[in-house]
Amino acid sequence: MQGSRAAARYAKALLSLAQDKNVTGEVNADMVLISKTIQDSEELQAFLKSPVVKNTMKKNALLEIFKSVNGVTSGLFEILIENNRLNILPLVASSYERLYDEMNGVHVAKVTTAIPLTPALEAKIQQKVKELTGNEAKIENIVDESIIGGFILRVGDIQYNGSVKSQLTGLKRELQNNTYVAKI
């Protein structure tokens, strides 16, 4: 993804500054808000990427949209505009969130299911992740109907595949390698 290395550097610098000022949690909340707002608004994405719109207009719009953000976060807007890098703001926000989670020992658990998770299932998965890793995790649900049923859980480099598709594939492999079935 274009700009992801630069976004990671800005996120590291932002985290360092937030640590110095002891506002890492507040800045993380700002980054979550920025990430979600930009992701949910195609108009805002187009506005921020537009080369026709002047940087002062973009800055004023961001400061108006995100009035309640911390001073460190509004300083990020200034730096990105000054360096003509405002287009990577969503990447900086998501990189900061990832770094903040790593710093606090929070993992991201990607759970692939055939249907969206219910809050009860999410709580069970959270408990299982804590049992496996010893840490809390953010649950990220990916809906993929091709797995038919069950789930696939990924936390860091640990993966557990309990999908129906995986079980059917394993059964097919067993039947193909079975000498009795092969003679039929």
How are the SSEs placed, and which strands pair?
Layout: H1 4-20, H2 24-40, H3 42-49, H4 55-65, H5 71-82, H6 89-103, E1 107-113, H7 119-133, E2 137-143, E3 151-155, E4 158-161, H8 164-177, H9 179-183
Parallel strand pairs: 1-2
Antiparallel strand pairs: 1-3, 3-4
Could you give a quick summary of the protein structure above?
By secondary structure, the protein is of the alpha+beta class.
What are the key terms here?
single chain; 184 residues; alpha+beta; Peroxidase, domain 1; Protein Binding, DinI Protein, Chain A; 2 domains; four-stranded mixed beta sheet; 9 helices; 62% helix; ATP synthase subunit delta; hydrogen ion transport
Characterise the protein shown here.
The chain is an alpha+beta fold. It has 2 domains: 4-102, N-terminal domain of the delta subunit of the F1F0-ATP synthase (Peroxidase, domain 1), CATH 1.10.520; 107-177, 2-Layer Sandwich (Protein Binding, DinI Protein, Chain A), CATH 3.30.910. Helices cover 62% and strands 12% of the residues. It has 9 helices and 4 strands, in the order ααααααβαβββαα. It has a 4-stranded mixed β-sheet, with helices on one face. Helix 4 packs antiparallel against helix 5. 22% of the residues are buried. The mean pLDDT is 88. Keywords: ATP synthesis, Cell membrane, CF(1), Hydrogen ion transport, Ion transport, Membrane, Transport. Pfam families: OSCP. This is ATP synthase subunit delta. Belongs to the ATPase delta chain family. It is found in: Cell membrane; Membrane.
